[in-house]
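Q: What residues go here?
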């Protein structure tokens, strides 16, 4: 066998030709995740879009597929039903979490948070002829 290896001959199973692939269930959850991620009014769609903006589409798709797989497993093993709460509730929860994190960060550096009043941009719109649109641009 050692002599065959020195001569360049094949002496056993070829491992280079085997290609690793995910199982059928994993691929199925990724396909479902792509579809759920495009939904407009679902909390899972909001989760996908938020993660896609930060980490990219492939990571967001895999994370949503895992979340769907966990929900499916919970349903099959424990019989717990998943009730969709909607995008508004999800966004409110995300905003609450961000405010909590910001308050903790301000407390860490001995700063005080104050709610912003008035316009969202620096400066005033007095004396201008155009009004800002929804994003604050003239």
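A:
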């Amino acid at each position: 066998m050692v002599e065959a290896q020195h001569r360049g001959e094949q002496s056993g199973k070829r491992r280079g030709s085997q290609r690793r692939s995910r199982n059928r269930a994993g691929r199925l959850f990724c396909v479902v995740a792509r579809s759920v991620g495009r939904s407009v009014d679902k909390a899972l769609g909001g989760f996908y879009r938020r993660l896609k903006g930060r980490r990219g589409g492939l990571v967001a798709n895999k994370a949503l597929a895992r979340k769907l797989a966990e929900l499916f497993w919970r349903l099959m093993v424990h019989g717990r039903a998943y009730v969709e709460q909607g995008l508004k509730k999800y966004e409110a929860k995300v905003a609450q979490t961000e405010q909590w994190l910001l308050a903790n960060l301000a407390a860490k550096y001995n700063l005080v948070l104050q709610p912003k009043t008035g316009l969202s941009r620096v400066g005033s719109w007095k004396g201008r002829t155009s009004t800002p649109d929804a994003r604050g641009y003239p």
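A: Context that may help when evaluating the design: The radius of gyration is 26 Å. The chain has five helices and no strands.
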